[in-house]
Specification:
The protein is mostly beta strands. The protein is built from no helices and 32 strands. Strands 1, 2, 3, 27, 28, 29 and 31 form a seven-stranded mixed beta sheet that branches. The radius of gyration is 20 Å and the shape is globular. 52% of the residues are buried.
């Protein structure tokens, strides 16, 4: 039996749950996918699985884009069942990576170059492309969110004219002819989140007049989103609504130093930025924000700090950093299993010599998570996050740098 690999300590850390860039797999010992003759080949060690899961990986390198599906079998076997090129187009900017989300048996994937959103049917083992929807000739879909009932897909659009933006509501997703209703935004929209009751939408961006959290009323399905409020957060690339019990959204600015902020949205017409979190020494480029199961924590990948951070939603502070090891690359996306025992990171990095690291790692945090409640000291004490070295229990080598992850359970 192969012993689980341990990451080297480089003072890093973070943790997350499934959603946008998410992966859920409940397997135990070791899974390793390596490239062979241009394809991904699965090798597996011992493990028992209660049910079957599918892991979807979006990859991009310049104008090359791919989607892969990996099946986690009930007996522990792991196999790549499907890989498809997503089309080239012109070489997009580095920030225009494919963005994925899912609802029910559908997977949604953006194409910044063409302005389309591809809809994939994932009810079966091998995904099937159903259709592509355009959000407009000058609109570049950059972030996606699905309504709680699964009937509406929202797209935050960062158009090619960088000083304008838009948000689109694609309604009746299950119908033959979904309608696309688009509203103009005061600036580029990079990310989007939806309220638990489906009545409001939240977008944000990091350039020009888009450096705000904008609140949109989407309760009327017959009209485009209606802007009702906004607050300046100094720019952000990611947004999440982590807990239905708290009327708050969190934003992350992918910068050095990075910024994670809390916005009170209890009054949709007057949102307020209430907290700017201290990210300490591991504040280099926070990217994905993903809720952790149970509603107590929010997880963020720290792209240039080789770690994942755990944010306590009640204390509004970072309570732990989970290091993935410098040899794994930079975590651009993060996800968590539904039981919270495993965290997944999509890692890609190019060193000064031009060597590219591209993989997805699985971190076993089953023994780390119980300590998060007691980390960070009392609410009135200075932040004192703990550093935890994650144990890498699986690694997936990919043909191209991975930029997005989604996991779906199949019973």
């Amino acid at each position: 039996m192969v012993e689980p690999a341990k990451s080297g300590p480089r003072n890093v850390g973070f943790a997350c749950e499934w959603t946008l860039l998410a992966v859920w797999v409940g397997f135990y010992p070791l899974i390793r996918l390596t490239r062979f003759s241009g394809n991904l080949v699965a090798k597996y060690a011992e493990g028992m699985f209660g049910m079957s899961d599918m892991l979807y990986i979006a990859m991009q390198d310049g104008n090359q884009r791919k989607l892969s599906a990996c099946r986690i079998g009930v007996g522990g076997e792991v196999s790549v069942t499907f890989t498809s090129a997503l089309g080239d187009g012109s070489n997009p900017p580095m920030s225009a990576v494919p963005w994925m989300t899912r609802a029910r048996d559908k997977l949604y994937l953006t194409n910044w170059t063409t302005g389309d959103i591809a809809i994939w049917d994932i009810a079966e083992q091998n995904p099937k492309l159903v259709k592509s929807l355009s959000v407009g000739s000058n609109a570049a879909p950059s972030g996606l969110a699905v309504s709680p009932d699964g009937q509406t897909l929202y797209s935050a659009n960062a158009p090619r004219n960088p000083r304008t933006g838009s948000v689109s509501a694609i309604r009746d997703l299950e119908g033959q002819n979904p309608s696309v209703l688009t509203a103009t935004a005061p600036g580029p929209c990079e990310a989007v989140a939806v309220s638990p009751d489906g009545a409001y939408l939240y977008t944000t961006g990091y350039r020009f007049n888009g450096r705000k959290v904008i609140v949109w009323d989407v309760s009327d399905a017959t009209r485009p989103p209606q802007q009702v409020g906004s607050v300046d957060v100094g720019g952000a690339n990611y947004i999440a609504y982590p807990d239905a019990a708290r009327k708050e959204v969190y934003t992350a600015k992918n910068d050095i130093p990075g910024v994670v902020s809390t916005v009170d949205v209890s009054d949709p017409e007057n949102p307020k930025c209430t907290t700017v979190l201290d990210l300490g020494e591991y504040n280099r480029r926070p990217t994905t924000l993903v809720p952790y199961p149970g509603g107590k924590f929010l997880l963020a990948s720290m792209y240039m700090s080789d770690c994942v951070g755990v944010i306590n939603l009640l204390q509004k502070r970072v309570v732990a950093f989970i290091g993935i090891g410098t040899s794994q690359g930079a975590p651009i996306a993060v996800a968590v299993s539904s039981d919270g025992k495993k965290i997944y990171t999509a890692n890609n990095n190019t060193d000064t010599a031009g060597s590219v690291t591209a993989n997805v790692t699985e971190l076993d945090v089953s023994e780390l998570a119980p300590h998060w409640d007691s980390s960070g000291g009392a609410p009135d004490q200075p932040p004192n996050p703990v550093y935890q070295t994650g144990i890498i229990s699986a690694k997936i080598e990919t043909d191209l740098p991975p930029v997005g992850l989604v996991c779906a359970r199949h019973g």
